[in-house]
Amino acid sequence: MMRVWILPMLFVLCGSAVATGLLFAEGPGTAAALLLPFLALAGVNSPLIFPRPIGAREAQRRSAVDGRPVVFWRPGCKYCVRLRLRLGRSAHQLHWVDVWRDEEGAAAVRAANDGNETVPTVVVAGRPHTNPDAAWVREQLSAPV
After folding, report:
1. pLDDT at residue 1 is higher than 50
2. What are the residues whose beta carbons fall under 8 Å from the beta carbon of 51, sequence distance 6 or more?
3. Which element (helix H / strand E) includes 71?
4. Rounded-to-integer distance, Cα 82 and Cα 137, Å
5. Which residues pair with 121 in a beta bridge?
6. Does residue 42 contact residue 23 with C-beta atoms inside 8 Å?
7. Parallel/antiparallel/unpaired status of strands 70-73 and 95-98
8. 3-state secondary structure of 130
């Protein structure tokens, strides 16, 4: 579980170290201007922007009941972040499985992608779709079950 916070913490620590050095050399304005992009990268790569992940088994069970897609993702994946941001509020209607937290989810992604843990992988009606367009995923939310 700690692994999901490594990348965001590295962004914060590196940004803080560089900003501290610039604080004395260049002044507070330059230091703050440099720290902000590091904090933004930490935020985007943190698990906080994603809906709370559930296990693969539970996601598949819920999807069978409500027909909503299951999204397999991992923190730090720029394609997962892009999908999440482009989905906007509709992202909360999906079932999210963090493959770094759930071994069954990682195994499902490897099975769907020729042994590779390629994310995001979105499963709709039992069929996997690797790195789909956000508009297509949104359409699947309104499609009849």
Report:
1. no
2. 91, 92, 94, 96
3. strand 70-73
4. 13
5. 72, 130
6. no
7. parallel
8. strand
Percentage of residues of the chain with pLDDT beyond 70: 90
In this predicted structure, what is the pLDDT of residue 75?
Answer: 82
Q: State yes or no: pLDDT of 126 exceeds 60.
A: yes
- One-letter amino acid of 130: T
What is the distance between the alpha carbons of residues 126 and 61, in angstroms, rounded to a whole number? 11
Give residue for tokens 């730090």. Answer: 76
Is the CB of residue 48 less than 8 Å from the CB of residue 4? no
Mean of the per-residue pLDDT values of the chain? 87
Instruction: Report the alpha-carbon angle 101-54-3, nearest 5.
Output: 20
CA–CA distances in Å: residue 5 to residues 26, 50, 75, 139, 144: 30, 13, 8, 32, 37
Q: What is the pLDDT of residues 28-81, one digit of tens each?
A: 888 888 888 888 877 766 666 767 789 999 999 999 999 999 999 998 788 998
Hey, what amino acid is at 140? Q
Residue 12's identity, in one-letter code, is V
> What phi and psi, each to the nearest 5 degrees, are found at residue 90?
-70, -15
